[in-house]
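We recall that each integer encodes one residue's backbone shape. We quote one record:
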Amino acid sequence: MKFTESILVKYTFLELLEREFGIQLREDETEKIELAKQSIEIYDSVEEFYEATGWQRDNPEESGREYLLAHRILAEIQGKLWYFSRIRYEDGVKKAGKPDCT
């Protein structure tokens, strides 16, 4: 079963996007849902996030764990750190010719 074919998974993902990252999508926005899915990265630690993204190097004043969580850059879900790459998502939306809905 594909991601978008499971209603429960789809609604859970849409709820998670809104609650944790402030991204609101409708269930019929399948292209945007797929882009959002591709924009999620999951890390075991904040150090792993820094290493993979270069965040600490590029944003030293905004790199503390508390800052990242408070500003919805990272979300802690079941012991993992989830990162939603807004740049990747917004670039994908632009390429698809869809108006941004974030």
User: Anything to note?
Assistant: The mean pLDDT is 89. The radius of gyration is 14 Å.
